[in-house]
Amino acid sequence: MRALVLAAWLSLFGVAAWAEFPALYDVTGVSSGDVLNIRAGPGTAHADRGDLVYDATRIEVLGREGDWLRINFDGAPAWVSARFMTRQEGAAFPDHPVICHGTEPFWSLSRAANGALRFERPGAEALALEGSAAIRSANRADVAHFSAASGDARFDAILRKGSCSDGMSDLGFGLSIDLLRRDPNGTRLLSGCCALN
């Protein structure tokens, strides 16, 4: 009985939602040469906005509503049938490759599958960073930290699962980042959103 009460209590707070998404999916079960329709909303009654080819892979899924999965498509939120999508196995949060970015000032931080980190901003030379392994929060499975450095520039990043907006587009993101940069010119806190890469 206790387990049932605990499960019901946890479901009220959406614990499974942040644990499950974002994630990478592949299109499956669509005939060769056919396509999977992308809809403007979660259901066939919504407008067809485009298509995914029958063998599309590495589609970032941000959430679920019933039998529909939410993705970004052509600069806006969109939906595909969960029936034709299979979650990829592999790296889990916080170890999967990501591309993070922020606006005003514009910047990006990418982490590749091999752990290589790169920080970029317009008008400045890109920095290849030496980074640490990401560590999870001791009390929150949806929060992680990693640090990195390049020469006299030091970076500390807090990565969080959860809805994020870049403030400039209609795109949704499933990860947010707060990036503290320290160098001889001072300390700067940058905030942004991340996508699985």
TrEMBL record:
**InterPro entries in the record:** SH3-like_bac-type (IPR003646)
For this entry, the protein name equals SH3 domain-containing protein
Q: What is the lineage of its organism?
A: Bacteria, Pseudomonadati, Pseudomonadota, Alphaproteobacteria, Rhodobacterales
Domain SH3b: residue ranges = 34-84
Q: Which organism is it from?
A: Poseidonocella sedimentorum
Checking Pfam families in the record gives: SH3_3
Signal peptide location: 1-19
The organism's superkingdom is given as Bacteria
Family annotation (Gene3D superfamilies): SH3 Domains
Q: Which UniProt keywords apply?
A: Signal
